[in-house]
């Protein structure tokens, strides 16, 4: 999106002068600032900066020391102009991001590409010391809508299910985490979300060959039965193909991340005001189970009208199960009840 004139976003102002600026990602950048204010990043690289909007906001709104990079000379000139507009001095690189991140290390690396981050991941994981933030907009490849593309880019088999956004987020995290382990690094997911056309993840990095190996307990497969909706997850150390109780064969999605999608203590600290606050409040209350259930998919399977989702949650909790809404969809929920119990409860309402 190429906007004309002065743009005000957050606490900053920028000009685009023909350089790409995506107004639809404003919510993401707003949410990032809430996250960034709770990180102790020192030197942060806005690796694919375009107009520099995210890095400039990180400087002013989160107190980061930012270096900017873009391979396009026009973008570099726009970044420099926007730094002047906001009274900031910063280092601006005009390089291939992958090469820059191989020759220089940063406390925090941020990748926000147009499409897939895969071509930059190796270098980003090599460069990042403490934090890595990644956006992906190639959601079809990640969530299973484009299975072959997912295999090519992420070396993961996925097909579209009712919880496809969670699948996509887990595929992306799995690829980042497994790439980090090549450099004896491990990661903890601080917070992640899926919204509209993109996935966004923020990870904290540590260095230990032992812990890098142990992280594979959280890389595995989701086994999904298309016939009855049953599903479960297993790590790569225990995953074997098997048959569902309904008699159908499971399809196996992965390898992907089967660990936590957020750190509860970190999310608890995040500001819950405004639209971004609603997202973080939902994440804070979300049950940490693998995959969610889409209400309309279940009621189509059962051939009944969908009851209010709140009644389902209340009934599950009354019967001793844990249950919550999700960050992925307003008509989805998570629970530790099995598929047969979920169906029974829906039919009883």
TrEMBL record:
List of residues binding Zn(2+): 225, 228, 242, 246
Catalyzed reaction equations: guanosine(26) in tRNA + 2 S-adenosyl-L-methionine = N(2)-dimethylguanosine(26) in tRNA + 2 S-adenosyl-L-homocysteine + 2 H(+)
First-level EC class: transferase
Keyword field: Metal-binding, Methyltransferase, RNA-binding, S-adenosyl-L-methionine, Transferase, tRNA processing, tRNA-binding, Zinc
GO MF term set: metal ion binding; tRNA (guanine(26)-N2)-dimethyltransferase activity; tRNA binding
BP terms from Gene Ontology: tRNA N2-guanine methylation
Gene3D superfamilies in alphabetical order: N2,N2-dimethylguanosine tRNA methyltransferase, C-terminal domain (3.30.56.70), Vaccinia Virus protein VP39 (3.40.50.150)
Keyword Methyltransferase appears in the UniProt entry: yes
Coiled coil, from the record: none
EC number of this enzyme: 2.1.1.216
Keyword Metal-binding among UniProt keywords: yes
Binding site for S-adenosyl-L-methionine: 29, 54, 70, 96-97
NCBIfam families given in the database record: TRM1 (TIGR00308)
Function: Dimethylates a single guanine residue at position 26 of a number of tRNAs using S-adenosyl-L-methionine as donor of the methyl groups.
Family: Belongs to the class I-like SAM-binding methyltransferase superfamily. Trm1 family.
Name of the protein: tRNA (guanine(26)-N(2))-dimethyltransferase
């Amino acid at each position: 999106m190429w906007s004309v004139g002065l743009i005000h976003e957050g606490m900053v102002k920028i000009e685009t002068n023909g350089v790409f600026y995506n107004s639809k990602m404003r919510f993401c950048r707003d949410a990032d600032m809430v996250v960034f204010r709770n990180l102790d990043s020192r030197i942060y690289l806005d690796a694919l900066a375009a107009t520099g909007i995210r890095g400039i906001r990180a400087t002013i709104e989160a107190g980061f020391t930012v270096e900017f990079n873009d391979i396009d000379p026009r973008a570099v000139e726009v970044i420099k102009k926007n730094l002047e507009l906001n009274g900031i001095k910063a280092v601006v690189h005009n390089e291939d991001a992958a090469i820059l991140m191989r020759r220089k290390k940063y406390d925090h690396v941020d990748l926000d590409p147009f499409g897939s981050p895969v071509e930059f991941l190796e270098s980003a994981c090599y460069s990042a010391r403490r934090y890595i933030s990644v956006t992906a907009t190639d959601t079809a490849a990640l969530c299973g809508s484009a299975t072959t593309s997912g295999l090519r880019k992420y070396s993961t088999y996925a097909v579209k299910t009712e919880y496809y956004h969670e699948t996509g987020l887990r595929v992306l995290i799995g690829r980042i985490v497994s790439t980090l382990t090549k450099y004896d690094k491990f990661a903890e997911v601080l917070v992640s979300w899926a919204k509209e056309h993109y996935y966004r993840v923020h990870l904290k990095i540590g260095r230990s060959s032992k812990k890098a190996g142990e992280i594979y307990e959280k890389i595995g497969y989701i086994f999904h039965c298309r016939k009855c909706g049953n599903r479960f997850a297993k790590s790569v150390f225990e995953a074997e193909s098997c048959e569902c109780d309904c008699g159908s064969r499971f399809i196996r999605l992965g390898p992907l991340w089967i660990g936590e999608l957020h750190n509860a203590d970190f999310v608890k600290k995040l500001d819950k005001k405004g639209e971004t606050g609603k997202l973080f409040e939902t994440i804070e209350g979300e049950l940490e189970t693998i995959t969610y259930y889409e209400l309309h998919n279940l009621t189509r399977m059962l051939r009944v009208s969908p009851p209010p989702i709140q009644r389902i949650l209340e009934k599950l909790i009354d019967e001793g199960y844990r249950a919550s809404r999700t960050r992925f969809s307003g008509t989805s929920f998570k629970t530790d009840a099995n598929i047969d119990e979920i169906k029974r409860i829906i039919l009883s309402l």
